[in-house]
Amino acid sequence: RLYQIPFEMPDCEGESETRTLHLVGDFSAPAEFFVTLGVFSFLYAMAALVLYLRFHSLYGENKKLPFADFCITVCFAFFWLVAAAAWGKGLTDVKAATRPASLIAAMGVCQGQEVVCNAGTTPAMGLANISVVR
């Protein structure tokens, strides 16, 4: 799937007109992977909690069950690390696609010889960075 992120830019030839440009790219896969893994982790934690509390004697008697639980937990921890790295990569891709210099380079109106375009301010990505770190 390709997503288009629209943004408005002025058309210098007509003062009141604006054109909509689209950034093309799919930045959702890493976030979807991270959220899916979080949902499965939550469901497994609820199932394990029921097993620990309701069927405690079965868990204590069977020696393979704690080892299987440990292996599943290790797998979830590994996939959580992979998902966090993928989310970080996805965020880096979004930052690169929405960097003001990249947007200005994509605007045809800024390609003229005597045209000077500047971006103003860089978008704040602090909360997005914190979401990856945490």
Automatic annotation (TrEMBL):
Residues 1-134 form the MARVEL domain. The keyword Metal-binding does not apply. Keywords: Glycoprotein, Membrane, Transmembrane, Transmembrane helix. It is found in: Membrane. InterPro entries: Marvel, Synaptophysin/porin. The keyword Cell membrane does not apply. The chain crosses the membrane at residues 33-55, 67-87. It is a multi-pass membrane protein. Signal peptide: none annotated. Belongs to the synaptophysin/synaptobrevin family. PANTHER family: SYNAPTOPHYSIN, SYNAPTOPHYSIN-LIKE PROTEIN 2. This is SYPL2 protein. It comes from Aramus guarauna. The lineage of its organism: Eukaryota, Metazoa, Chordata, Craniata, Vertebrata.
